[in-house]
Design brief:
This is ATP-dependent Clp protease proteolytic subunit. This protein is of the alpha/beta class. The chain has helices at about 5-25, 35-55, 70-80, 100-105, 130-155, 160-165, 175-180, and strands spanning about 30, 60-65, 85-95, 110-115, 120, 170-175, 185-190. It folds into two domains: about 5-120 and about 170-190, 2-enoyl-CoA Hydratase, Chain A, domain 1; about 125-170.
Length: about 200
Amino acid sequence: MLPFRQRLRLAKGDYDSKIDDFYVRSRTLFLNGELTDRAAHRLISALLRMNEQDPVKKVKFYINSPGGSVSAGMAIYDMLQSLQMPVETICVGQAASMGAFLLAGGTKGMRCAMPNSRIMIHQPLGGAHGQVSDIKIQANEILQIRQILNAHLSHFTGKPIDQIEIDCDRDNYMRPAEALEYGLIDHICKTRTSHIEVGPAVCID
């Protein structure tokens, strides 16, 4: 008989596999937490399985993420764009940084946010170290990534790249209504309490 810990790991793996199968059958994706290479692998694997089942049926993609790896986010985004399936993106909790990018990258007309969620866009972050030549290479790479992200955000929102650069210069937090006006989402989800009026944003002078 296998040791208890090994049996527990196998049982957990079998449970996770069943959960993944359920979400694939229901054509539902979840990004919950930091966007990592592991999260991207799991989401892309699920997407490919959904594409095998039905290449044109809608997929729901729920996002609650503070962001994370740009390369992992772009891997998910490119896969979504390479398939014919329409993708409904829904922000629950928060969609920040690459999370906001994926939210805005859903199918036009099918991007939405929960009433109390938060959306944040900003320029890519990075730290450079090493010799001067290495720092220059890394700085240039960050500029290239920023250029790519801004071009796509401009496409998502219809805003000029110059405006995107200004708006992403610092952390730019938005309520759903602001994200709707900006063009990151297309509508705000209705809930039993979405009629509550919060009032104007409170700011420190």
